[in-house]
Design a protein that fits this description.
Helix 3 links the parallel strand 3 and strand 4. This protein is α/β, with parallel strands linked by helices. It has a single domain, classed as Response regulator (Rossmann fold, 3-Layer(aba) Sandwich), CATH 3.40.50. Helix 1 crosses helix 4 and helix 2 crosses helix 4. The chain has a 4-stranded parallel sheet.
């Protein structure tokens, strides 16, 4: 059986999808092949890198990628993590299944240290919601997802 391939998709591929990719890779390991992308990619947000680093997940080598660069890959699961990406890519050709769970965009919290609590909360929500969702959709046992 091949390793299931997952795509986590948002608009900018700067925060939520990057954190999701990091958590899935960190917690589900080699049981899944995980990618993230954006419909309008920008850059990996420094605060996302910072707060994931606090949790032991290194995003420093991540780059923002366009969904167009991944359209050639067949995905077992595509998860949209923002409403805009869901509207832009309601159907992902080649995906066996697409699900949606929107998370707040922490970028709107600002740029100063006062934004850090919002980034941390979103980071923790993504870990607590997205990783179990991916595990459930792929048929991995809950024990494996923790």
């Amino acid at each position: 059986m091949s390793t299931p391939r997952v795509l986590i998709l948002c608009t900018g591929n700067s925060c939520r999808s990057q954190m999701g990719e990091g958590w899935v890779r960190h917690l589900l390991g080699d049981r899944v092949e995980v990618h993230s992308a954006g419909t309008k990619p920008s850059f990996v947000h420094p605060r996302a890198i910072e707060v994931m680093g606090e949790a032991g997940v290194d995003l420093s080598s991540h780059a923002s990628k366009s969904v167009e660069t991944l359209r050639v890959l067949p995905f077992d699961l595509v998860v949209t993590v923002c409403d805009s990406a869901r509207e832009t890519c309601p159907v992902f050709p080649g995906a066996k299944k697409t699900v949606h769970h929107a998370f707040e965009d922490p970028v709107h919290a600002g740029t100063g240290d006062d934004a850090l609590p919002v980034f941390r909360r979103v980071r923790d929500e993504i870990r607590g919601v997205l990783v179990p969702l991916v595990a459930r959709e792929l048929g991995l046992s809950p024990v494996e997802a923790t």
